[in-house]
């Protein structure tokens, strides 16, 4: 392990953050990441998220570098959340664990000295002890983290933009202009309905992995657990409660026959609705799935318009989802614009196998927004 430039190893200490250091790290990175929230609200949100099921009881660990002898002088920080995963190797499926790394931040006073790289190499040592792999989402391009061992994976996305004449804004959210072309095809989902649907989704994904055949590649996926979905919803709800004094009731939508459903989160910072995941019954035909995707995305567009959010975002759409997106756009030809593109500068996914195992023959199944944290 190489020494950081500028500061020597004898000048810094790496370790798990104390409660005080955790607060200091949030205050430090909040200067850049808090808006449109105040710094105090941002720290309160991070504290709230640390108590969610996904993060609590040591499942999320907070790491810091600090100056030796000055534990309040944070040099760099990050967090790691341990999650259940599915792995299929040579046609044999098994359960495992993976880490999601987030909030990598270096104190501006110590940048360009290799501090974050030094910290992440130490974090790798800890993660490698009790996990199969780790992932992160880079907002600084793919090269930096690739050089540290995280291989860049596909980062395609589709954005459905509700055009300005359709958006009515927060004050008119109950009288939004964009309406579903076939409202009888869906109903909106409430929070208390989601845990059971997540359980069904987990079982279906496990069945998919059991059915995978040996193809010379290793297939992986994060489990779409209720704790994961609930964490993202809690993040959105906290901000909505602060900004608007109320939270959205609709957490997704389901088709009238219960065959397909979607989870979404309201992203107030990026002013968009993020589609976390669309779920289909395993026995649905291609035509049925495309029709369901169309209906569910129309519901997402209506929800986005209701809250004054101009965009609906989805990661890595497959062929069926692409067709469903186009169908949803065709139902609103003058109200919706659809763009398919590749992310080049934000949320670029990278995966690193524990102990540096080669990731070139790895297929990341369902690399969707629900994985993010």
From TrEMBL:
It holds the Pfam family Acetyltransf_1. Residues 51-133 form the N-acetyltransferase domain. InterPro entries: Acyl_CoA_acyltransferase, GNAT_dom, GNAT_LYC1-like, LAT. Residues 181-373 form the LYC1 C-terminal domain. GO terms for molecular function: acyltransferase activity, transferring groups other than amino-acyl groups. This is N-acetyltransferase domain-containing protein. It comes from Bombardia bombarda.
């Amino acid at each position: 392990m190489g020494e950081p430039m500028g500061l020597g190893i004898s000048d810094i200490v790496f370790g798990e953050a104390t409660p005080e250091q955790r607060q200091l790290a949030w205050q430090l990175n909040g200067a850049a990441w808090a808006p449109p929230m105040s710094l105090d609200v941002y720290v309160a949100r991070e504290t709230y998220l640390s108590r969610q099921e996904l993060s609590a009881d040591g499942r999320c660990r907070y790491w810091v570098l600090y100056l030796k002898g000055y534990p309040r002088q944070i040099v760099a920080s990050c967090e790691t959340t341990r999650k259940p995963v599915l792995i299929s190797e040579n046609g044999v499926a098994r359960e495992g664990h993976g880490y999601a790394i987030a909030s990598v931040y270096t104190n501006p006073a110590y940048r360009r000295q290799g501090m974050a790289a030094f910290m992440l190499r130490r974090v790798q040592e800890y993660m490698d002890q009790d996990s199969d792999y780790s992932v992160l989402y880079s907002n600084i391009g793919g090269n930096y983290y690739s050089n540290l061992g995280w291989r860049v994976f596909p980062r395609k996305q589709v954005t459905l933009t509700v055009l300005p004449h359709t958006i009515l804004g927060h004050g008119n959210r109950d009288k939004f202009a964009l309406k579903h072309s076939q409202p009888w095809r869906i109903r909106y989902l409430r929070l208390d309905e989601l845990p059971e649907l997540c359980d069904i989704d987990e079982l279906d994904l496990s069945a998919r992995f059991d059915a995978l055949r040996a193809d010379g590649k290793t297939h992986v996926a994060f489990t779409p657990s209720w704790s994961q979905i609930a964490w993202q919803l809690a993040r959105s709800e906290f901000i909505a409660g602060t900004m608007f004094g109320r939270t959205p009731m609709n957490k997704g939508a389901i088709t009238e026959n219960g065959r397909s459903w979607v989870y979404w989160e309201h992203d107030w910072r990026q002013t968009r609705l993020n589609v976390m995941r669309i779920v289909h019954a395993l026995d649905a035909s291609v035509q049925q799935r495309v029709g369901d995707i169309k209906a569910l995305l129309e519901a997402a567009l209506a929800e986005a318009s209701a809250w004054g959010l101009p965009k609906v975002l989805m990661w890595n759409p497959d062929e069926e989802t692409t067709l469903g997106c186009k169908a949803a756009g065709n139902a609103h030809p003058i109200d919706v614009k659809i763009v398919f593109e590749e992310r080049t500068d934000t949320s670029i996914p990278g995966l690193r196998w524990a102990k540096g195992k080669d990731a070139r023959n790895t297929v990341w199944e369902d690399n969707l927004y629900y994985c993010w944290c």
